[in-house]
Amino acid sequence: MIFRQLFDKTSCTYTYLMASRSGGEALLIDPVLEQTGRYLKLLEELDLKLVKVIDTHIHADHVSAMGKLRDATRCVTVMGEQSPTEVVSMRVGDNEKLTIEGLTLRALHTPGHTSESYSFLMDDRVFTGDTLLIRGTGRTDFQNGDPYDQYHSLFERLLKLPEQTFVYPGHDYKGDTVSTIAEEKAYNPRLNVSSAEEYAEIMNNLNLPNPKMMDVAVPENLKLGLRMEAQHRVPSVEVDALLADWPNVQMQLVDIREESERRRDGAIPGSIHLPYGRFASHCSDAGTLRSLNRNADLLIYCAVGERSTLAVEIANEYDLKGLAHLPGGFRAWKAAGGEIEAID
Q1: pLDDT score recorded for residue 218
Q2: For residue 109, what are the contacts with CB-CB under 8 A and spacing of at least 6?
């Protein structure tokens, strides 16, 4: 496995890059905007294709690089389903699996630092964001943070992982790079408590100043998604127009979400499933989309319209005609009362 721990000196943020092999798919966790060029250069040097970028929560101390990386690589942006950000390409729920070629991470909802904080477990290591730090824990006094929630996230989720599990946090201010669950149980002073009330008493009396970037970072990170106006840069069919013709739609619907999303949320009836991760190959001369496109115009949709916008742009580069997408995606279809088919 390719694994890199990258550090941003200004915010003391750790970003994690991983892939199962050289020349394969890659994933980044918690990238920092100012380091975007560094990430892209490293991906090129290691011959990796960035396919997913995860933010463990809405950051207050730096602006995320998710938006820039999406625009540069057409990767999928990922956050927990509780995230208040307006548009993120893919949302994961507690215990859902997130996959790239050769690697699987399990999402763990670990609120407390913020209400939407997630950790991600992969084999022998867990990426804890700002929930569990090395010899510390993330503050709980803003962004719907709650010390009682964090206590339960720590003592009922993370600290129940195998003791040899490596802990890779979202930040460190002392120069430490990695710990283990066993070490944190033994030596983390914040965890040396006998009750949630005792933990809350500690966290409620830290009296820390707000992060210097908070007033800039939080608003920027809430709007990193491909918003509705940007989704209209490619041909589109609005939900109202689709519903007006339903079910006598003259276009073939193509669902580009991942199978886990379809099983969780259902699909628009009559959709063909062609996941976004292989979209370019579907557009090739021998690809499924090209043969479909000979017989009908195609309407692409995803969860919120971000991936489908990028997909239509990819199709245009392959000179495929008659493609449009559904702005707002499946979420807009569901909100408008559109028919939904369960996926087994």
Answers
A1: 92
A2: 80, 82, 93, 94, 117, 118, 153
| Closest alpha carbon to 50 in 17, 4, 84 | 17
Whether 328 contacts 304, CB under 8 Å: yes
- HEC sequence for 257-299: CCHHHHHHHCECCCCEECCHHHHHHHHCCCCHHHHHHHHCCEE
Q: What is the 3-state secondary structure (H, E, C) of 229-246?
A: HHHCCCCECCHHHHHHHC
Helix (H) or strand (E) holding 335, with range, is helix 329-335
The structure tokens listed for 181 are: 């669950």
Q: What is the distance of C-alpha 167 from the center of its chain?
A: 20
Task: Please list the helix, strand and coil fractions of the chain in percent, rounded to the nearest 5, in that order.
Answer: 35, 25, 45
Gap between the Cα atoms of 344 and 327, Å rounded: 26
In whole angstroms, give the CA distance from residue 235 to residue 323. Answer: 7
**Residue 254 confidence (pLDDT) above 90:** yes
Confidence of residue 228 (pLDDT cuts 50, 70, 90): confident
- One-letter amino acid at 330 equals F
The C-alpha atoms of residue 338 and residue 97 are separated, in whole angstroms, by 27
User: Cβ distance 66 to 80 under 8 Å?
Assistant: no
What does the pLDDT look like over 15-46, one tens digit per residue? 999 999 999 999 999 999 999 999 999 999 99
Q: Report the candidate in 22, 23, 16, 94 with the shortest Cα–Cα distance to residue 55.
A: 16
Would you state the pLDDT for residue 266? 98
pLDDT of residue 143: 87
Task: Band the pLDDT of 192: cuts 50, 70, 90.
Answer: very high
Neighbours of 84 (CB within 10 A): 15
User: How confident is the model over 277-330, as pLDDT tens digits?
Assistant: 999 999 998 899 988 888 789 999 999 999 999 999 999 999 998 899 999 999
